[in-house]
Input
Amino acid sequence: MKTINKTFLSCVIICSMLFFSCGDDLEGIDGNPRDISDQQLEIDFQDIGAPFRPIFQSIYQYDPPWSFQLQQNLNADVFSGYMTNPRPFVAGANNTTYNLVGGWNNFIWSVPYSNVMNNAKTIENATKEEFPEFFALSQILKVSAMHRVSDVFGPIVYTKFGASETTSEYDSQEEVYTAFFNDLEESMQILSDNIGSSRFQPFDLAYNGNYTNWIKYANSLRLRLAIRISKVDPDKAKTEGEKSLNHPMGLIEINPEGFFVNGTLDHPVKTINNSWGDIRMNASMESILIGYEDPRATSYFREKVVTDTETVPIQPGSLKGIRNGLPLLPGYADELAQKADYIRFAVLHENLLTPSVQLMTAAEVYFLKAEAALRGWSGAGDAKTNYELGISTSFQQHEASGVTSYTTNSTLTPKDYTDPVNPGNNIAALSTITIAWDDAASNEAKLERIITQKWIAMFPEGQEAWSEYRRTGYPKIFPVVNNQSGGTIDTDLQIRRIPFVDSELATNPAGVANAVNKLGGPDTGGTRLWWDVPGGNF
Output
């Protein structure tokens, strides 16, 4: 951590002086940028605003796309049941088959620490007293990024980040979640006190300087985190959740209030999906979307156009997914030969792969409220009403028609999966849950409905979908075809976390040893996180 902190702090300072982030084009700047005075930098708050761009764009990293591929796409996006890779990387011995690749997984850790935590610390040191709203916004963004990191590893370096020149001390996941709640509470109060300020507008890649929307987002994020810990610490969850549900500024309610990071770069999945052909529809997505005859399916995916149809046994007009965790199958000479067959399966739709990158939607918030209502939290409203609003809001977001007939359908269920290339991958649907709300159902069945529809609505944001799958067990997604974990990950329970990364093991061994103690189990992909409590949800 010491090397990362110093190296990237230097980068941030230099980039701030240039008015750009490290990767930006410096062409057109007249004279020596090092001659820019402090007074010039302070005009329009450029000195404290410049570090925000790399924070926004490193919740997950957009550029280069391969960085995002390693930071999220070849772990959470796949583990969530959303996507999978047609190519069996490393001859099938890779993350998707639970043969976890340390060099890949370093990016889950290094990107947010280098570009989020370091920049947030720079902003805190420069702004907390004089420009508190800049500090507050950096804190909200920090929680946005770092709860994802904690939900991958468990214990992380957070409250004591940068406190030591030689080691970095980890917080337990319980400690870090407490810090998240405190940081969000403090930040919302600061923004409320500075609601009329417009100083942040030039640097805002989400809400164009609208502090009311920032407060709604932070409040909704707090509700997400409260629901996350509802099984392990129900009292704390209820307290924090009810703060959100009863907050005077409210929650995200309509699609324009969702948290989307806007920029000039396309969604990194666009390159991975189109140019490289490295990601395709997951079989679990096919089972659920097609089984439900979901109108959003054609907004999420499209057929891959091919010409040699005789060698591609895929029914025209169908959207086909790929089972997760395919090894290098018998009969294929190499990875590329196998990819040539599976690359013809459904691709992600360009509608999703825009420079406006989705991190939290209004639909998700309605599903959070639906679960909060099941748990009896004050201010949550009615579970059925929120559930149906979640579906209709998602339909509006994706401009899909037929929401009334969809929401009231009580017969359609997820469908069995068939692999037209290799029938050995066929598998029966794992759930018989229907769509229409049933007041007579148990809370467990109601929750399966809520989380299944929430999972559909959050696509393509795989990190949150994977976390909710681990917390609840829903939706019921297909297990990997080939488990190469050596017994450390249960095939049916599926992967629960990523082990601590090689860079930390090399530079901070004492910190990692302490983190493993706080984890409460072996440092493997099969160990549950603090909030990942086995058994029923009620």
Observations:
- The longest helix spans residues 102-127.
